[in-house]
Every structure is written in C-alpha cells, then in structure tokens.
Amino acid sequence: MASAVAFSCLGWAFDLFDLFILLYVAPTLGKVFFHSAQQMSSLVGVYAAFAATLLMRPVGGYLFGHYADRNGRKRAMAIAAIGVGVATALMGAIPTVESIGIAAPMAFIALRLIQGVFMGGIVASTHTIGTESIAAKWRGLASGIISGGGSGLGKLLASLVFLVVTWIFPGHAFQVWGWRFMFFSGLLSALLGLLVFTKLEESPLWDELQKGKLGAATEHNPARPSLIQGGFLGAVVISIILTMAGGGLSYLTSGYLPTFMRLVNHVPPQKLGIILSISAIAVIVFSVIAGYLTDIIGRKTGVILFGLLSLIAIPALYLRLAHTTAVIHIGFLSILLSGTGALCYAPLLIILNERFPTEIRSSGTAISWNIGFALGGSMPIVVSFVSKAASDLPLSLAISTAALSSMYLLAVHFTPETREYMH
C-alpha cells in the first residue's frame, strides 16, 4: 500500500528531523550547554550528547521491536513518534549552563537518552510496515523512499526550519531563542504519531501471521523463532557492521556538512540553510534511484557498486571542498557529497528486512539497525576529537569515510543476495 510507504517515510523523516536539528545547531549548543575555551572541545560535548541518543536506540529497538512483533507495527510507530516529539520539544525548555550550571548539560543528556529509546521504536515500526505492505518487485524502491528518502525529507524539513528560524532570530538572537524554537518544532513528530494511530492500516504480512495464514511451517512450528536460537546471530552481526558503515557515511556527509561548512568554509547561516535544503533534495533523489536500482540488478550487486563509488568519491569531494571559496561551488560539492553519502545508506532497510522472517523482522531489523547506527553515529565524535582545529577536519573526514567505505564492502562480501527472501 502506498499509504503505508508514505507514513513509514514520514516516520523516518521525523526521526531524522529530530537528529538533524541537533546537528544544525551544534556550534550554538556548544556554547549553551558545553561551553569551553576550545571550540572543538565544545563540539565534542555536543556530539557526545548526540551519541547518547544513538546509544539508547538499541534499547528502544529491543523493547519496541518485541512490542511490534507481538502487538503490531502500527501501535509501536504511533507510541514511538509521540515520544520522540515530546522529548525533543522539552530540550528547548532547558535553561543554559550559565543559568543552572552543570545541571543544564545533565538535563540535556537525560532527555537525549529518553529520546533515544523512542527513536529505537521508530525503527522497529517504520522499517517494517512499509516494505511488508508493498509488492516484492518494488521493495528496493520502497527502501530508498523510506530510509533514504525519509532521511532526505527529514533533513529538508530541518533545513527549512533552520532557514525560517535564523530569519526570525538573526545573529545573537538565535543563540538566545532561535535554537529553542528549533527543538520546539519536534512536536511535529508527536502530531505524526496521532495521525498514524488514526489513519494507518496494519501490515498485511503481520496480520496474516496472526491469523495463522503463513503456511505449513508456521502451523507445524508454533514456537516463535528467536534471533539467537533461530540461527540468525551471524546475520545480526553482519547487519550491524553493514549498518554501522552505511550509517556512518551518511552522518559524515549529510550530518557533518553543516558543521564543516560553518567552520571550514565559513558559509553564512542563510546561505547555509539554502545549500542544506537543496542537498536534502539530492539525498532523496539519490536514495530513490539507489533503492530502485537494487530491484533491477540485485541487492548485492547494487551495494557493491555504491560502496566502491563512496570509497573513491567522498574523500575526494571533502578534500576539494576544503579549498573552495565560491558559495556556488561549495553548494555544488555539498550536494554531491550528500547524494553520494546516501547511496550506501538507502538499500540498508530492505536488506535487513529480507534477512529476517516476519515473526522476528521488527526485532531483527531494529536491533541490527540501532546498534549499527549507534556505532556509526559516533563517527562525528571521533572526527571532532582527532581534529585539533577546524583545519584538520578535511583530512580526518577523508580518512574516516574511506575506512567506512572499506568496512561496508567487507560486510557486503559476507551478505547473501536477499532480493527473493522476504516472506
């Protein structure tokens, strides 16, 4: 059903929207919650808070994954979306470190941890209900629309909000009020949860499973399979590595570009918002093409192609961007970086979905995805930590993205073709 894919895409968009909000205001939050005489040290604090959310996502994936496998994808998605939106909005109400001292970053990190649990739940539902509700021949396309397209849409929404908020609160006003309204906009996720609860139909595959219509295998083996006892531990491990690499490439391109362009290229906020908005559209286009391509040439052939392209293009683009001064050229390179970074990311959803049967699909996908993204999401911290100054970022990013691309290709080697597996 097209509606299921659309709602899944929106769910993933608002998940990424809430993450990109933090990435877009990272330099400001460094001053608000993690003030330090060293700019890069403040950024490490911000990205540590970002990683705190990612580290809690496996917990949410485990809890909501089991909930979704037993009680339905729709209910899990609605609860998770509302929780993410409320937690994000509350971050905008925290007093600054100048007002309440150490309690400010502690409260911020606590809310990031809570948000992470609900974000793990978003994965458990959006990553299954969409692909389970569409014909097999379009599942790669659905993957590109939901994960990559949703990511691009989330980035686009965050970019547009950033553009509007920086226009309403220019200069110093953004550091006082603007960043708060960025977080308040997270209530859009809560609104999505209410819409899902009232409008979206349940996954047909999950419904059939509950009615006992999945065939003789289910009838003769009523016991629910498990990830470990069912022989899926190896699939989980490889899926985690694959997701870590693909997710890390996404975070070090679309996720890190706002910081890179402000610290290295010194792009003004308004122009930055426009560049990021166009880059988000590129992510959507590249992701949809990448997902659909795997429907045509196969999952494995497609992701090998994407891994090789990322290995060559992303490091080269970052090194070139560092020496670019014209805003139009900076924008062009940023668009290419964002689009290329989405290629490895876009097919991950369907590859993970196709590796696990319906009984444990939400659990297997959510645990693999969330652990992988917790690890991949730590890459901005690593890059910020090893870079003593902003001038070190280009080389650090080139080396890191090359390493992640190599890891991705290695994981792909141990991943079977999954295009015909899902049932």
Brief summary:
With 423 residues, this protein is an all-alpha fold. The chain has a single domain, classed as MFS general substrate transporter like domains (Growth Hormone, Chain: A, Up-down Bundle). It is 79% helix and 0% strand.
Give the full name of the CATH homologous superfamily. MFS general substrate transporter like domains
* Helix content class: over 70%
CATH topology: Growth Hormone, Chain: A
SS class: mainly alpha
Radius of gyration: 20 Å
How is the secondary structure organized here?
Layout: H1 2-24, H2 26-32, H3 39-71, H4 73-91, H5 97-100, H6 103-132, H7 139-168, H8 172-184, H9 187-199, H10 204-210, H11 216-220, H12 233-255, H13 257-263, H14 269-297, H15 299-321, H16 327-343, H17 348-354, H18 361-376, H19 379-386, H20 393-413
Summarize the structure in words.
With 423 residues, this protein is mostly helical. It has one domain: MFS general substrate transporter like domains (Growth Hormone, Chain: A). It contains 20 helices and no strands. Helix 3 packs antiparallel against helix 18 (361-376), helix 3 (39-71) packs antiparallel against helix 19 and helix 12 runs antiparallel to helix 16 (327-343).
Which features does this protein show?
mainly alpha, 20 helices, Growth Hormone, Chain: A, 423 residues
